[in-house]
Fold this protein.
Amino acid sequence: MSRRRWLFWLALDLLAVAALVWLDRSFSASSPPRLSPPSPTPSAEIYARQAEAAYRSGQLEAAERAYRLALALEPENPARYPPLIRLLAFSHRLEEAADWLERGRRLAPEDPTLLGLTALIRDWQGRIDEAIQAGERAVALAPDQGPLYAYLAEAYADAHRPQAALAAAQKGVTLAPDHPDPYRALGYVYETLGRYAEAIAQYRAALNRDPHLVVVWLALGRNALALGQTAAALEAFQRAADLRPQDPRILDELGWLYYNLGRTEDAQKKLTRAWEQDPTDWRILYHLGVTLYARRRYEDIVQADRLPEGIRRLQERLAAEGKRCTPETLSAEPRCARLVEMAYLLGLSHYYLGDCAAARPWFQMALAISPQEENARKGLRLCEGARSP
């Protein structure tokens, strides 16, 4: 083959290769991009493990979100309910815990863990007979589960059955020495017996096993305060607040502690934050009212959404439970004494603002419940004196 013909065919081959490369690039540019396969949706079990990891690191809100996601994926699985119920209950959020408990019980009314949590929550709701019934059923179904004895022990303690309470709590510790709940229950039993130092030791044992139990920090603070250990009480309440910084009930506990320490300005700040988070809780409104009165903030006290609202909310709560405050029920229902106090503080605030017409009904309300209440009698005398020439 001549050199010229060889060069011709070589050039033709090069052109063909160039054309193929151009076509390949053109098709590649115009074709849709290759997509990675979609990531699988996390399962309920994955969310549950994420919740447990978040809880162990003290991220209670993240743990709660993950438990809720697990439940959203498996709402018919009774096993998904107890972790969220326990987290809410021990985070000082009883109403929400009770709501989830009802949902779980509808699915599995004889589940031992749910029955145990029923004992806990019914007891905290003041429904002690129901609590004992549920707790005894739980331990009968699962006699080797230590935490179930803990929940029953607390109900026995509130039923004034100390020996049964001690026996149940100690059995819980024996069966589950690494679980915090039996120690918490044993601490509570000692607390009801007035053995505050022993209670503190058991609460600390519970916190050594789980430092994220808000209600145990609050209980520890409460018992330290009973022993006059104000620094330890303040630290314990602050630890609870650190775990749930926006929880109105914890802010209320901390604010009330400040009040009892004489730090009324700090108390007002904390209690106002609690009220802003939950303006319907009668306890917050009561504590805030007492603090405002101590600081002579009478204009704030008489506002409709402050102490008057606290009185209304407490009356509604008592009525919902079928209870009334009368001279006959005063000694049996501690909240009636709070109602009397709120009424005469509101009356006195109106008096100091120069409005006896608004003050008298509140003094009369206090006396209708507690006829010997000297503060209400004093208020009426002051108003009568104000009318005298």
Remarks:
- Residues 280 and 313 are 7 Å apart (CA to CA).
- The chain is about 75% helix and 0% strand.
- The radius of gyration is 32 Å.
